[in-house]
């Protein structure tokens, strides 16, 4: 079997580029020649050796999203063929070749879209369509707050909320320069969650009612603040925990407002659930993708061999949009 370069968790040494076997696609899988990879927050923890669902620890092939060209398809795959330009999510994305279940693969929507641009999209599209539309149950005219809005996933959340008809969209970021840029992606209000009075800003902008939906990538100490900013019978979708996985929770305020608090993750979903998630996303957003209405800015690109430096750049939390690895 031929070998390839891949980013692997190497114990205390963290991420290392190693020579490993090229993966073989199973009956329901697609083998792709990777041209670019998108970085995600979970990659930092996995590179340090932490578990992410059933994955993690020494020997784990790192990376969650990629763009490239189909090399070979499993016997049950019907939609794709060798040579197709595709993007997708799955395990072991930081490599010269990657395999993924066909249900996580998406055609690159435009012949003019670069592999680098395409590699920014899959995780953000899948995560935020699921959070805003499927679990968030967004209805036209409703008010939405995206916490952690200057990340790639957050910026996509702003755009999806606007595209699906939200009447008011707010986003958060902790730096003035990034808050200023949120309006270019659909935010009508940009808040700073380091300021204790930020829920009042949200209430003032929504006639004292609060938002119908919070998509929360922060959690931690912001959990009770989110409750304050949400209206009666509103929804909070817990997507991420950048501000902490443990904190005090105001159960009385939660009950008083009758808020629906919903947790989401890919880590405990079955293959069939992820296929359905991707199908729904493509059905709702495919036309907008093809028209170029949904896009993410690339903060920085790194050569594949500099994957460790790319993760260090992400860990500094100074980026706006996506960080991308290129493989030529």
Automatic annotation (TrEMBL):
Q: Keyword Metal-binding: yes or no? A: no
The record, for InterPro entries, names: ADH-like_C, ADH-like_N, ER, GroES-like_sf, NAD(P)-bd_dom_sf, Zinc-ADH_QOR/CCCR
Keywords (alphabetical) are: NADP
Listed Pfam families: ADH_N (PF08240), ADH_zinc_N (PF00107)
UniProt key word Chaperone = no
Q: Where is the Enoyl reductase (ER) domain?
A: 11-325
This chain's protein is named: Zinc-binding dehydrogenase
- Which species is this UniProt entry from? Piscinibacter gummiphilus
């Amino acid at each position: 079997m031929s070998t390839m370069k891949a980013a692997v968790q190497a114990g205390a040494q963290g991420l290392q580029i190693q020579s490993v076997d090229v993966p073989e696609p199973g009956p329901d899988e697609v083998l792709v020649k990777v041209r670019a990879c998108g970085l995600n927050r979970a990659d930092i923890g996995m590179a340090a050796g932490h578990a992410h669902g059933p994955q993690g620890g020494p020997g784990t092939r790192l990376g969650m999203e990629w763009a490239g060209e189909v090399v070979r398809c499993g016997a049950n795959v019907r939609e794709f063929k060798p040579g197709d330009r595709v993007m997708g999510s799955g395990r072991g994305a930081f490599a010269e070749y990657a395999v993924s279940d066909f249900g996580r693969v998406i055609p690159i929507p435009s012949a003019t879209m670069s592999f680098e641009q395409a590699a920014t999209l899959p995780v953000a599209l899948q995560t935020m369509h699921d959070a805003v539309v499927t679990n968030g149950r967004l209805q036209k005219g409703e008010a939405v707050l995206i916490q952690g809005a200057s990340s790639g996933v957050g910026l996509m959340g702003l755009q999806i909320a606007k595209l699906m008809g939200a009447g008011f969209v707010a986003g958060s970021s902790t730096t003035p320069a990034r808050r200023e840029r949120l309006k270019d992606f659909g935010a009508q209000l940009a808040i700073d969650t380091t300021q204790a009075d930020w829920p009042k800003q949200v209430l003032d902008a929504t006639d004292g009612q609060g938002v119908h939906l919070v998509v929360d990538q922060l959690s931690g100490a912001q959990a009770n603040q989110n409750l304050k900013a949400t209206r009666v019978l509103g929804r909070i979708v817990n997507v991420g925990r950048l501000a902490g996985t443990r904190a005090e929770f105001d159960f009385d305020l939660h009950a008083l407002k009758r808020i629906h608090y919903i947790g989401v993750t890919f880590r405990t979903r079955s293959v069939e659930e992820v296929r359905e998630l991707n199908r729904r996303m493509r059905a709702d957003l495919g036309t907008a993708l093809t028209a170029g209405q949904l896009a993410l800015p690339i903060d920085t690109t790194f050569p594949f061999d500099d994957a460790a430096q790319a993760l260090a750049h992400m860990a500094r939390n100074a980026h706006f949009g996506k960080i991308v690895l290129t493989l030529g």
